C-alpha cells in the first residue's frame, strides 16, 4: 500500500523532537510524499511552543520544494468540556488539527468522562483526526463518537510510533474493525519526532494487514481523497 502524505510530524518546536521543517521536507522528498502536516504539541506540553509559534506557522508555511505543507497542531484535550490547549483564534488559522489525550494534560480513567470530553471536542473544533487511541490508552465508548466522526469526516489515526510502543494490538484491532464496519475512515501517520522517521509506516503497514484494511479504508493513499475528505487546500 502506498501513502502520499504524512500528517502527524513534530519539529524542534515541540520540545521533544529534533528536526527542522527544511530537514523534514528533505526526507519527504526522498520518500516521494506529496503532502505533510506540521503538528507540534500544543502548549499544555510543558516544553512545547507558545501560541505565537502556531500563528507564525500559519503565516509562513504552505509549501516547499513542491510538497504541500499544512500548518497544524497535535492539540491536547485539557478538560471535561473537551477544550483544546490553544485559543480559538489560533486554532482557526491552522489547517490540520489533531485531537489527543496525553498523560501530562489528562489523567481521568472514567470512560464516560473521557467519552464526553472527546465528543464535545470533536463537535466544537474542526478536528481532522484523533491521535493514537491505542497508546497512551484512555478508555472510550466509541459508539457515542462514531456519529460525530461520520458527520464531520474525522479520521482515526493509525500511528506508527504508538504501534511500536503498544505490545498488544488485539484491543486496538477490535476497535478499528468495529469503526470500519460503521464506515469510519483512517489515516496512517508516522508521528515523527526525528526527520528520518518521516514517512516511516512499517509498523502501521503490519497493523493494516493484521486488520485486513484496504486502500478504501485509508484516506492518505490518495491525494485527491485527502483533499475531498478533509476539505484541505489543494495548492499553494
Q: What does the model show?
A:
By secondary structure, the protein is of the alpha/beta class. The protein has one domain (5-230): TIM Barrel, CATH 3.20.20. It is built from nine helices and eight strands. Strands 1, 2, 3, 4, 5, 6, 7 and 8 form an eight-stranded mixed sheet that branches. Strand 6, helix 5 and strand 7 (155-159) form a beta-alpha-beta unit. Helix 4 packs parallel to helix 5 (142-152). The radius of gyration is 16 Å and the shape is globular. The model has no long low-confidence stretch (mean pLDDT 97).
- The assigned structural class equals alpha/beta
Q: Approximately what portion of the residues adopt beta-strand conformation?
A: 15-25%
Annotated CATH architecture? Alpha-Beta Barrel
CATH topology: TIM Barrel
Helix residue percentage: 25-40%
Give the radius of gyration: 16 Å
Number of strands: 8
User: How many distinct domains?
Assistant: 1
How does the major sheet shape up? 8 strands, mixed
Question: Key features?
Answer:
236 residues; 9 helices; 8 strands; 36% helix; 18% strand; globular
